[in-house]
Amino acid sequence: MQRTSDSPVEVDGPNGNNDFAHFYRLSELKHGRRLVAVPDAESRLAAYAFAGTAVTVDPRGIYDLPTDPASNDHPDGSPARRQVDTFNATYTTLLAQLHGLLNGHNDMTTFMGSLATMSTLEDLARAMARGTETSGVPIGPSFEYRPTTGLA
What we know:
This protein is mainly α. The protein contains three helices and four strands. The protein is flat and about 65 Å long.
């Protein structure tokens, strides 16, 4: 989500609380510090700076994935191909859900369904990166659009 017009805080974020929008969370990695509110004497509003506690990256949490993976990298019917195809079908479902949300079907059921699909994609991608079904060999999600019956 994008920030509001006067704050980087995402009001009513996905966990029902106020949190920084994605851009700012990722910027914390770039700056190596947490984003924190700092007083602004001129405007009496909170200003924000990357001046909080240090942000570090644990290299054990970084997956070694193949460069530019594709479903055709794996033989039909192989465990890796099944995982990639499942990921791509779920990714295509998410795109259809987001398309609906942005084109008039912005009801809470569709929104919550898209959040659930995002979570499923994350789980699938992590399993692929860990090599759960490929004897420990990591495979990467290919993010290939695979339209099926019923999806526009």
